[in-house]
Amino acid sequence: MNKLKLGLPAGSLKDSTLEIFKKAGYNVSVGERSYFPYIDDEEIECILIRAQEIPEYVQGQVLDVGLTGKDWITESGADVIEVAELTYSKTGLRPVRLVLAVPKGSDIKSIKDLEGKKIATELVESTRKYLLEKGISASIIFSWGATEVKPPVLADAISELTETGNSLKANNLEILETILVSTPRLIVNRESWADTWKKEKIEHMLTLLQGALLAEQKVALKMNINEANLPQLMKILPALRKPTVSNLFEEGWVAVETIVDEKEVKNLVGRLKEVGAEGIIEYPLNKLIP
């Protein structure tokens, strides 16, 4: 039997990744101390590994395909194919940023002030490359963690991944500049992508994952309305293409169903009522395949 070796990120992205796979239709379960999760697809073999390591293992054909951040692809310099961007994070759908940060009140006011300074980071190569592009010569030191506490005693500044910026603020740091914006990427090595069966398997999996992510931002609305008011409703009701309209048993009335952005609903419901919509139902979606 053909097998697709899939690398899933451990650490901060693990829970959100497993949740997206669940919504996509894959049941993935992880044992307490196991690095080989069970997945209810006998053609896929999962390995749970740090996101930092996934690009190199994919490049080396230990894994066919993997999920990791753009930051770690850039950091490793791995020769892999980025099949797709999957925008989610450990707390939601927002990307993370690699930023340069300094203590509040520091004499370092711009990137030029980093000349000759000491910068602590886990992403040494990404930081070094960025500073070189800006013409800045600084000492980049690898940080084994707790990077936010390094300034001002152990470093003058840090280069750190942040999603909300809350941890930086809590440690009295302010952002100087953004180095890169990172989102999870589905990556594959060139040999596996050239394999017809593996490529098709990856593309089918990607369709389901993208459908699950798209559904995160959408909801379905269903309502009843008198046919006389239907033209007014259609003027204000968004849809992927056109809303679905079906006849009700009661003559002169129809049911209307559509997909809308979840964030629009709070501003839309009142307007729907104004044009005569009744029995409005909102319900979530697991997957939405365009």
Descriptive report:
The strands form 4 sheets. Strands 4-1-5-12-6 form a 5-stranded mixed sheet. It contains 9 helices and 16 strands. The chain is globular. The chain is α/β, with parallel strands linked by helices.
Summarize the structure.
The protein is α/β, with parallel strands linked by helices. The chain has three domains: 4-91 and 184-215, D-Maltodextrin-Binding Protein, domain 2; 96-182, Periplasmic binding protein-like II (D-Maltodextrin-Binding Protein, domain 2), CATH 3.40.190.10; 218-284, Alpha-Beta Plaits (2-Layer Sandwich), CATH 3.30.70.120.
- Strand segment count: 16
Coarse morphology: globular
Order of secondary-structure elements: EHEEEHEHEEEHEEHEEHHEHEEHE
Helix content class: 25-40%
Class of secondary structure makeup: alpha/beta
**What characterizes the major β-sheet?**
5 strands, mixed
What is the element layout, followed by pairings?
Elements: E1 4-10, H1 14-24, E2 28-29, E3 38-39, E4 44-50, H2 54-59, E5 65-69, H3 70-76, E6 81-85, E7 96-103, E8 118-121, H4 124-133, E9 139-142, E10 157-162, H5 166-170, E11 173-182, E12 184-188, H6 190-194, H7 196-216, E13 218-226, H8 230-236, E14 244-247, E15 253-261, H9 265-274, E16 278-284
Parallel strand pairs: 1-4, 1-5, 8-9, 8-10
Antiparallel strand pairs: 2-3, 5-12, 6-12, 7-10, 7-11, 13-15, 13-16, 14-15
Features:
290 residues, alpha/beta, D-Maltodextrin-Binding Protein, domain 2, Alpha-Beta Plaits, 3 domains, 28% helix, globular
